[in-house]
Write a structure and sequence with these properties.
Two copies of one chain form a homodimer. The first copy, chain A, has 196 residues and is of the alpha+beta class. Chain A is built from nine helices and eight strands. Chain A has a domain at 4-121: Jelly Rolls. In chain A, helix 1 packs across helix 2. The first copy, chain A, binds a DNA duplex (30 and 30 nucleotides) through helix 9.
DNA sequence: AGACTCACTTGTCAAATGACAAGAAATCAT
DNA sequence: ATGATTTCTTGTCATTTGACAAGTGAGTCT
């Protein structure tokens, strides 16, 4: 198993020692998701806690009008699962789909819970991940309130440049809360802002 | 101790039995926060996990320009603390302030951790609360992307009518991501939408 | 009472963004 | 390859929202 990246990841919070990380990683099974394949479909229960090793994914919901709204992007080194569906065992409102071919490692809800039960340090790790996701959402919310569309785009470009390279414009636009034509204009503008 | 509401709350996820709920509630101490008093100041570590029994509170941050941005409202029956600061033991970026006189029950981080350690059912309860908060933020984010300011205001009015009665207009406006004059116009408009 | 502050409203104008539609460019299926 | 589909860009115009400023009214302090 070439799960070195997962083992590193488990140690990243400093609460899990190398040997324990190796043991925990042993409970994960490998998974690959082909480009455009769905990792999770709305209506299903999110049951895989998936460490994404290589590739990019996105999550999206539908607004009342039926349009797709991208709610998250994921790159290598992140864990992909729908929090509410996974922990509450209820159908997901969101879809998760691979933007590129993806590879990684997963465990099921049941296995995760077993590990949480038997390993306090892994439980702490899981909480830390949840808290981190929560904080990330909060800061995105703050950006949505205080920044202009252009600023939000530039922030995404800076903080997540790979995403911009792999996601289609309309997904990025709905993630930023703007229309695709507006984003197209923002892109055109930021290049020529000095010219004309 | 008249902590019946807290005891009920602990049982609300169905994972904690009445007797256990009573014992856990016994670890909480009572707290009152006077109107306009700060429950938490930016720069401090959030160290109280506070079950708000009666009253209303809000959380707010400052944007780069220095203006207050309200990030959350809390009413009776909710738990008030800054997730990231509390669990990561880092200074809070947010302030939390009482909108009205408040009463409730709290435990410190250390005590909470002790309970998490000794009582699996309370640990599950804590996770459930975190997951609920996470899901709430996600749906607020979705509303911010897909709904107009008027729709967001009407949703708040419907889902949290008490808040609107106790928070000043400008706090509500920044929570909704609009200026106070826009909110004032929205309010004026929704009354007269049938008239001229 | 009188002067102050604070919360809210309203007017005017500008800026940001959306709606809709047409066209160019890239991608895909057969 | 070719036609179909999707993706992205661009034009025109409408709508939403913001910026700024003035005004009203309610409460507060001395």
């Amino acid at each position: 198993m070439a799960s070195e990246k997962l083992i590193q990841f488990l140690q990243s919070t400093g609460r899990i020692a190398p040997q324990q990380a190796r043991e925990i990683a042993g409970s994960f099974a490998s998974l690959r998701v082909g480009k455009n394949d769905f990792f999770l479909r709305a209506g299903k229960i999110s049951d895989e806690y998936f460490f994404l090793d290589t590739g990019f994914m996105r999550a999206f919901a539908h607004n009342p009008a039926g349009d797709e709204v991208t709610t998250a992007f994921y790159g290598g080194g992140q864990v992909v699962f729908e929090v509410s569906s996974f922990f509450n065992r209820i159908p997901s409102q969101e879809n998760m789909q691979a933007l590129t071919d993806c590879t990684g490692w997963f465990i099921t809800f049941q296995e995760l819970n077993g590990l949480f039960h038997s390993r306090e340090e892994f439980r702490e790790f899981g909480r830390s991940l949840l808290v981190k996701g929560y904080a990330g959402l909060k800061s995105r919310m703050l950006a949505m309130i205080t920044e202009s569309a252009t600023e939000r785009y530039e922030r995404l470009l800076k903080e997540n440049p790979e995403v911009v390279q792999h996601a289609p414009l309309k997904s990025i636009a709905s993630y930023l809360g703007i229309t695709d034509s507006s984003l197209s204009r923002i892109r055109a503008g930021s290049k020529n802002s000095a010219l004309k």
